[in-house]
Design a protein that fits this description.
Elements lengths: L2 H28 L16 H23 L13
Length: 82
């Protein structure tokens, strides 16, 4: 197997894990009884707040990944990342 094929297999495995994680989140958001299957929050929160956190986490993670991939030169002059 070439290094290119190994890299493509790794990319496919990461994508499959992300897809599975996304499906689990969708199921938990649709059925609040499944929220108990996730790690309990470190602080006390309502079921609604917990759903909000569960929904927001992949969005924030995606934003961080996109910023990490963005080349420095493509940012506007004087632009700061949050």
């Amino acid at each position: 197997m070439s290094s290119y094929q190994v890299r493509q297999a790794q990319i496919a495995q990461k994508a499959a894990r992300r897809d599975a994680h996304r499906e689990l989140i969708i199921l938990a958001l649709g059925d609040p009884s499944l929220l108990t299957c996730w790690e309990p929050p470190h602080t006390s929160m309502t079921a609604i707040r917990r759903q909000q956190v569960l929904f927001t986490n992949p969005i924030v993670t995606l934003g961080v990944r996109l910023q990490a991939r963005r080349p420095e030169r493509s940012r506007a002059p004087g632009h700061r990342l949050p």
